[in-house]
Amino acid sequence: MRELSRRQLGKLSAGLAVVGAASLVGGGQVAGQNSGLSRPPKLPRMLAKAEIPQSRYPRVVIVGGGWSGLTIARQLKRLGVPLDVLLVEKREVFFSHLQANLWLGGLVELDHLTHSFLDAAKLAGYVYFNAALVDIDRTSRRAYTDQGYIDYDYLVLAPGIDYDYGSFGVKDAGAEQFLRAHYPAGFKSGSEHLSLKRKLDEFKGGIFVLTAPPGIYRCAASPYERASIIAARFKRDGIKGKVVLIDPRDQPAVNGDGFLAAFENLYRDHLEYMPSVVIKGVDPIKKTVSTDFDDIQFTDAAIYPRVRAAKMIEAFGLADKASQQKEGAIDPFNYNVIGDERVYITGDCRPMPFSKSASVAVSEGAHVARVIAANAEGKAAKWATPESRCYSVVGLKPEQALLSLSYYRFDKATKQWEFAPNSSSDNTRSEKLARDNHKWGAGAFKELFG
To answer: CATH for 163-306?
Structure first.
């Protein structure tokens, strides 16, 4: 094993400290401090070469096995350009946020949401490497994981989101951890969804608070769909409870007319929508949400704060300092880090104001795959708008849904992103749209996992 320079060793130590403090794409715990030693302890596993197949072609390393990372890996192998593709992901099982609300409502089984990364890799012909990213060295094009280092020709960072509890005025680490454990948002890990499902199964009555975060979040329609489904459960099961949905916007972020009609016509006694309300603080011990108008006492809750890009983006010096959500500083059309056409940031960590939905991640992922494949051949790929396709279930019996379909364009005169003219919404509750939703979801899973 080659000797590391003092600068590289110090850089790696900083990366290890980040793993201990942040929610990265990494797996188990690693030591980030050295108990007073003059230099970090030897870390042979991390500083040795990872045990992966030898590369025959330029290697693309993709960090993060969400919808974006999986799609990029799949599409790169489909395009036929000779590239070795390796997916680095800490989890051993994929848990989908797409259609997770349907599971909360009893409309799909758990195995609909859970899939094998091994199956995905086998289907497409890339390598799945179960490991945690610790650090990157862009000069030597090397990615360090808890299972060894990997040399790359192209690196894609798609590690997902972290929560910004400070946006709710929660700055004490103990209070934040209590919130995470007792009132999880249910928009990040599979464990959060399992916890939320159990909460609902055991809920006997009272006020169940949900929050819709400010900014661009995962995903635009989901808090309103979730509120509808939980209210439908209370109504169906005779639970003397009410969902209180707190939203900083003056109406739902998408399908406003459709959601408001469902809230009023279907769940008047089981759902209270509170628009234009800004949360100032949360006391998880007293079970109180403080707003700019009043304090709201709750029986149980799922607290969804503002999201930010995964903390590794900032820790690696790749965040746009102007981004309130700490998203990557990238070329908005090619997704590469500014000044580095070998490193790309995608999915929830990109800064453009598109929905952070699975459908957008899939269409963006296909574009990024084309960009990388073209770059490998000395060519360029033309930008194409992502598609945001959001079905939102608002009724359980009968199952009915809404649809929001969005496309985007960049106005060169104003230098602003805006919706393309072919965007549309269907705000009429429809059983057909509910059936379309199931077909679309099944197709999305089959595409990646077989």
So the answer is: 3.50.50.60
